[in-house]
Predict the 3D structure of the following.
Amino acid sequence: MALIYRPSGMALEYAPLALNLYNGCTHGCKYCYAPACLRTAAEKFHQAGVPRNAVLRQLEAEAHKYTDSKDRVLLSFTSDPYQPAEDHYKMTRGAIRILTDHSVPWQVLTKGGVRACRDFDIFIAGGGYFATSLVFTEDSSRREWEPAAASVESRLEAIRQAHEAGIRTWVSVEPVIDPKQALSLIENNSGIVDAWKIGKLNHHPAAAQVDWQKFTDSLVELLPGLPSQYMIKDSLRKYLPPGFEVNTICEPESTKSTIATLF
């Protein structure tokens, strides 16, 4: 089975290619979809993050197939590439070095906060994009919904450091749980975030407590006046007025010119 794959469903809205390095994730997010997708009990999935068998060796063998691809490989959808296990295994650092060495464009999406900053040398060398998932401004809410993930402050600090280093940044504001916090997050941090990708809470009882039309109306007022680009995911598009631009993010045809060889 190929390691780099084309995601389906809602995941395909975020990235055309993906790569998962770990089995399991210890962040313990209450809305996590991965256990259901992988047909694994949530308790087992959140118990530990373990590298997939021979994952770097397989990536080394596959990477040349995606050299100078116009599509970026995203790390990761079914686990977090900067969960605490990365302190020991350093799978993500190894993977992005391999991708960079083979001139494969890539991006990282994480809730690991400043843990990722130690690898920004490779982000710079490899033209990697740095993204975080963040839906709250209040860390008390984060602790309730994402008990073992990095704090709000840590995630924003990582984005700030990436931005200051010249690394392209984006934030996944999904799943929106508290619309007020989500809107405040977007309004007050667009100076360090190059793009926002926004989607609603799905398949959870709390979703019924949110006025999604009111939230989307607020996005329509807010987003066009900000310096950041944005993408509104399909889950919210039915609430938009006719003709509203849902995606202002333009990826380059090729990232070859931004890739540098590390070795």
Remarks:
- The chain has eleven helices and nine strands.
- The first helix runs from residue 34 to 37.
- The two ends are 29 Å apart (CA to CA).
